[in-house]
Amino acid sequence: MPDVTANGAATIQVQNLVKSYGNYEALRDVSFQVQKGEILGFLGPNGAGKTTTMRILTGYMPPSSGTARIAGYDVFYDSMEARKRIGYLPETVPLYTEMTVWDYLDFVARLRDVPNRDAAIEHVMEMTNIGERADTLIGKLSKGFRQRVGIAQALVHNPDVLIMDEPTIGLDPKQIIEIRNLIKSLAGNHTVILSTHILPEVSQTCTRVLIINQGKIVAEDTPARLSARLTGAAHIHVQVATPAANIPSELEKIQGVLGVRVADADAGIYEVETNQGSDKRADLAAMVVQRGWGLLELRPVSLSLEEVFLKLTTTEEVTR
Amino acid sequence: MKNVWTITVRELKALFVSPIAYVVSAMFLVAMGYLFAAILANTREASMRATFNNMIFVLLIMAPALTMKLLAEEQRMGTIELLLTSPVHDWQVVLGKFLGGLILYTVMFLGPTLYYVLILQVFGPPDYGPVLTGYLGLLLLGAAYLAIGVFASSLTQNQVIAFFVALVILLLLWIADAASVVFGVGAVSDVMTYIALPRHFNDLFRGVIDTTDIVYALSVVAVSLFGATQVLQTRRWR
Questions:
Q1: B16 chain-A contacts, CB cut-off 8 A
Q2: Of B10, B14, B85, the CB nearest to A60
Q3: Residue A69: inside a domain, yes or no?
Q4: Which of A84, A86, A113, B168 is deepest in the core (most CB within 10 A)?
Q5: Is pLDDT at A232 greater than 80 in this prediction?
Q6: Is residue A307 part of a domain?
Q7: Same domain, yes or no, for A108 and A81?
């Protein structure tokens, strides 16, 4: 099977992936593509199918139906070729606690047939900032260091594709930032898929998000556009200089305004909800100025990714 | 083959830093030392035959202890996910683990018993033919035991379960011919007599090399390792 990335095809191609365990369908017809150099975030609640998708991509388990290709190689039929091109950090970091960091990375590098092993190991230890722990037993390392050894392991053969299942889980805030920066620095040369259920992670690290719920992709876009698409100008943030009790009821008289929420009564901040698609900013401004409330601020609010996530993943619960 | 060796070497390092190998080996040597001394005192015979016969029974219990962790621990710790997503075939993982166990067995179990031969040499040189074929037999038998242990270890992530599954399989193979009577004379009875473990090693301990015995041991190894590979593969589908 030829490497088709050169002529513009996606590095990762996933088509109609289905994975069922008995009657339970963990993945239901999942399709997506990832271009070279992208960082794709897999977002979804626990049990949504993130890990299952990653395990199929890495060749750990085969799909029930559908295909997945890494750099043109089918992960099932050309498994060895596909695996050579993947670095994988599973959810449970696969560490041998009785080995030293160096021995462990050396073992992985040997399995991966890395040329110039020592230099490669030193390089990834530097990248992940574990250089001074080369001779420490992995069992004696803290959670943060173990996670970094896991990432070093996934990078040691300089893979085209990096797949990381919850890479920042269990780390402290400082370590999380370090790891995120590391992941961001990988973009361009490596194609990255990472999964998370922490939303800020996606908006901070990923170039594209794929929200997955109950085995299906429910949304796919850039973090910014995803928030925008769902909100438009539906929410408008208004701040006035002279707050008054009757402001909400007055604003609600404008046609197209669905409701007004007092966000901060003392500061005079109101959250106005309007019909999707109808821009009511001019009408609101006109009324505030006309009544002499003193317009300080007026802007559309896009929902945070967190709210988008909740909105997308809870709709099914609501309609059920 | 390089992948197999990489896994074997890692396994050996792990086995030599874990206390299990040392404890099991020490217990084995305590039991064997006692038996050797007792046999020597009673028979006053410059021969290893009786010692070998006792050894294969003691190993019945010791071998599963040596192999129980090989694949079970990988599954419990999640490191199996690293191995099965590396560009390594499942059979290479199984074979690598098995070789690790076999090398450890040879060095830590068989190796130290050579001094029994040395003791015999001092008091009256034994006939070295049966000693050599005896050790060949122990190597083959050990390989069969360990392969069964690897298979048992592939079934579970619990080392204790792996130990008992291996022990029971070995016991059943040990006594298979005893139950053959139940089936009267016929194919089933013949098969049960053939698969019984001990009878295949008596000849070797007496100094007779019979290819059927060698084929038997290698078949047990092949079938067990093939089984373990299949178990790993079906694990992917679950």
A1: none
A2: B85
A3: yes
A4: A86
A5: no
A6: no
A7: no
Q: pLDDT-based confidence at A32, cuts 50/70/90?
A: very high
CATH of the domain at A273: 3.30.70.2070
Number of separate domains in chain A:
3
Neighbours of A206 (CB within 10 A): 25
CB interface of B with A, residues 58-87, below 8 Å: 77-87
**What pLDDT was estimated at residue B2?**
87
Kindly report, residue by residue over A147-199, the tens digit of the pLDDT: 999 999 999 999 999 999 988 887 888 888 888 888 888 887 889 999 987 77
**Cβ partners under 8 Å of residue A207, min gap 6:** A38, A39, A40, A187, A222
Q: What CA–CA distance (Å, rounded) separates B160 from B68?
A: 7
Q: Which of A117, A55, A66, A106 is nearest to B85 (CA)?
A: A55
The domain of A296 spans: 233-301
pLDDT at B175: 85
Beta bridge mates, A257: A274
Of the pLDDT bands very low, low, confident and very high (cuts 50, 70, 90), residue B228 is very high
Average pLDDT, chain B: 90
Q: Which of A90-99, A216-225, B36-45 has the highest mean pLDDT?
A: A90-99
Per-residue model confidence as pLDDT tens digits over A100-143 = 999 999 999 999 999 999 999 999 999 888 888 999 999 999 88
B20 to chain A, any CB pair closer than 8 A? The answer is no
Are A301 and A227 in contact by the 8 Å Cβ rule? The answer is no
Give yes or no for A97 touching B (CB within 8 A).
yes
Considering only CB atoms, B81 lies closest to which of A21, A60, A110, namely: A60
- The pair phi, psi for residue A171, each rounded to 5°, is -100, 160
Over residues A47-76, mean pLDDT: 90
Candidates A58, A111, A169, partner chain B, best to mutate (most B CBs within 10 A)? A111
pTM of the entire structure? Answer: 0.82
Of A80, A96, A113, the CB nearest to B79: A96
Tell me, yes or no, whether A201 lies in a domain.
yes
Best interface-test mutation with A: which of B11, B81, B90 has the largest number of A CBs within 10 A?
B81
Give B9→chain A minimum CA distance, Å: 9
Contact B86 A108 (CB under 8 A): yes
- Asked if A110 and B6 come within 8 Å (Cβ–Cβ), the reply is yes
User: Mean pLDDT throughout B124-135?
Assistant: 88
Strand A73-74 vs strand A65-70: parallel, antiparallel, or unpaired? antiparallel
User: In this complex, do A111 and B84 lie within 8 Å of one another by their Cβ atoms?
Assistant: no
Residue where one domain finishes, among candidates A228, A253, A273? A228
Nearest by CB to B3, from A90, A98, A111: name it. A111
Task: Compare A153 and A264 and report the one with higher pLDDT.
Answer: A153
Q: How far apart are CA A265 and CA A253, in angstroms?
A: 19
